[in-house]
Structures are given as structure tokens and as C-alpha cells.
């Protein structure tokens, strides 16, 4: 197989594996570019768009939830309106701050050392949060109070630093604000839909002409999209089952080990 398409498949696998785990998909894609030696700037648009494949996996796996909420909205059921309200309120901070800081965020995307340090610090933070959280009062997305939802949305913005992890920031933020583990994980899945759609739309508006380049065209994006979709389908259910039983500590230790290894490699190369 052509080396180009092997890279496409590998990046699709990395995206599908890491988008919903608290380990940073963006950080892993940045480190992959350093490890494999390809031009990260050329593949930046590709990396953003294939995230939609992972997002589609959420829609497919949770279609019953979305259908029930949609029907509830038509019937004006309060719980469905609270569900929608909470997603919108949690999304707004990242939309506003992301637009305001977009150029600065792009600069950080070219800094693999930032990713390595963020992985380590994030891993330590997860371990500390896991040991200190006690009360988990909210067992449904619609049950989370408005103030706490906004707090989760603000905490998600920390993930604009590559290596922090959008899902990790959202989940840990939710845990510290009293949301139980499974609900925190699922909230991060659902919140990824408007967040990633917004990020992809912004990239397409700013750099859509790059898709027509000879290096990364629509065929490569389509293949990466399908690969990330399939891998994410497998990962999401496994992840929910794992954290419900064992918490997030395994991912914290992975982050610390991976970040340390990356930092050593980046320093010695």
C-alpha cells in the first residue's frame, strides 16, 4: 500500500482511539507527526475534519438518546429541554474563547513539547481529582444545575492547550462539580458534537482550499473519516464500561508515561 494511505489509516486509528479517551487526540496527532516525520501543517486540515468520523460514532451509538430527546422536545417535556439547554450552555464558552484565541491556539499546535508537558501535568491532575472527589449527586445530564454546566464548559476550554484533552478536561471538570462517572463521560461525548462541528466549520471556512491540494485530498479525508468512525465505535462502549468499574487512573498513568517518554525523545533527538 502507498505510504501516503498508510499514514492516512494510522492517523484515523489514532483519532478514533483517542478522541473520547482523556489522553488528547490532538496531542497524539501532533506527536505522531513528529515521530513519523511528515509535515504537520500539510495534514492539519485532515486531522480536524476526520474528527467528525469519531463524532458520528457517538450519534450512531446513542441514537436512541437523541431520538428520545428530540421527541421530548416536540412534546415539550422539561427533561428534554434541560438536556438541550445544558449542552448549549456548556458549548458556549469554548465557542467564544475558541474564536477569540484561534490564532494563538494554532501556534501551540506546532509545539510538541507543550503536548508532552500537558500529558504529564494532566495525568497528575487526574490522579489528584480521582483521590479527592467524594460527593457525586448528579446522575443525568438533564439534572446538572445551570451554574455547574457553565463551569464544565469553562473547564473544557483548558483543552485548547494541545495535550490537555477535551474529553479529559470535560470529564474531570464534571467530576469535581458533582457529576457521577458514567454521566460525566457521556456528557463529554455529547458535548463533543457541537464543539467538534464548530471547530471543523471554522477550519473549513479558513482553510477549505487546502483540501484540494495534491497531498491531502478528499479521498484521503474520506478514508481517515471512515477509519476514525469504526475505531471510535469500538472504543466508546469499552471506555464507558471501564471507567464505571475502575475510574480514570489507568489513563492518568498512561498520560504520565507517554508524556515523559515523548519529552525524553524530543530532548534527545
Secondary structure elements and their pairing?
Elements: H1 3-18, H2 25-36, H3 40-49, H4 51-61, H5 63-74, H6 78-100, H7 102-108, H8 112-132, H9 146-156, H10 166-176, H11 181-207, H12 218-246, H13 249-268
Helix pairs in contact: 1-2, 1-12, 2-8, 4-11, 4-12, 5-6, 6-9, 6-11, 8-13, 9-10, 10-11, 11-12
How does this structure look, described?
The protein is mostly helical and 269 residues long. The chain contains 13 helices and no strands. It has helices at 3-18, 25-36, 40-49, 51-61, 63-74, 78-100, 102-108, 112-132, 146-156, 166-176, 181-207, 218-246, 249-268. The two termini are 29 Å apart.
Tell me briefly what this model is:
The chain has 269 residues and is mostly helical. It is built from 13 helices and no strands.
Quick one: biggest sheet? none
What class, by secondary structure content? mainly alpha
- Report the sheet-strand fraction: under 5%
Helix content: over 70%
Number of DSSP E strands: 0
**Amino- and carboxy-terminal Cα gap:** 29 Å
Q: Return Rg in Å.
A: 18 Å
Total helical segments: 13
Low-confidence stretches: none
Mean pLDDT: 85
Principal-axis shape: globular
Which series of helices and strands comes N to C?
HHHHHHHHHHHHH
Amino acid at each position: 500500500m502507498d505510504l501516503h494511505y498508510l499514514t492516512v489509516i494510522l492517523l484515523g486509528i489514532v483519532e478514533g482511539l483517542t478522541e473520547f479517551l482523556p489522553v488528547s487526540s490532538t496531542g497524539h496527532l501532533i506527536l505522531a507527526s513528529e515521530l513519523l516525520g511528515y509535515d504537520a501543517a500539510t495534514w492539519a486540515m485532515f486531522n480536524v475534519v476526520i474528527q467528525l468520523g469519531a463524532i458520528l460514532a457517538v450519534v450512531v451509538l446513542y441514537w436512541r438518546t437523541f431520538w428520545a430527546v428530540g421527541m421530548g422536545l416536540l412534546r415539550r417535556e422539561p427533561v428534554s429541554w434541560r438536556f438541550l439547554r445544558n449542552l448549549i450552555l456548556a458549548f458556549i464558552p469554548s465557542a467564544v474563547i475558541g474564536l477569540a484565541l484561534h490564532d494563538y491556539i494554532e501556534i501551540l499546535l506546532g509545539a510538541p513539547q507543550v503536548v508532552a508537558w500537558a500529558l504529564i501535568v494532566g495525568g497528575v491532575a487526574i490522579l489528584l481529582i480521582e483521590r479527592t472527589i467524594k460527593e457525586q449527586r448528579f446522575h443525568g445530564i438533564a439534572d446538572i444545575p445551570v451554574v455547574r454546566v457553565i463551569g464544565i464548559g469553562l473547564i473544557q476550554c483548558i483543552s485548547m492547550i494541545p495535550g490537555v484533552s477535551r474529553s479529559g478536561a470535560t470529564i474531570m471538570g464534571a467530576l469535581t462539580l458533582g457529576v457521577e462517572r458514567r454521566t460525566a463521560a457521556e456528557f463529554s461525548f455529547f458535548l463533543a458534537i457541537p464543539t467538534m462541528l464548530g471547530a471543523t466549520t471554522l477550519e473549513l471556512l479558513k482553510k477549505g482550499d487546502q483540501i484540494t491540494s495534491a497531498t491531502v485530498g478528499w479521498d484521503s479525508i474520506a478514508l481517515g473519516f471512515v477509519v476514525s468512525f469504526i475505531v471510535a465505535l469500538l472504543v466508546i462502549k469499552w471506555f464507558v464500561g471501564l471507567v464505571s468499574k475502575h475510574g480514570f487512573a489507568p489513563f492518568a498513568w498512561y498520560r504520565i508515561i507517554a508524556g515523559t517518554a515523548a519529552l525524553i525523545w524530543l530532548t534527545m533527538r
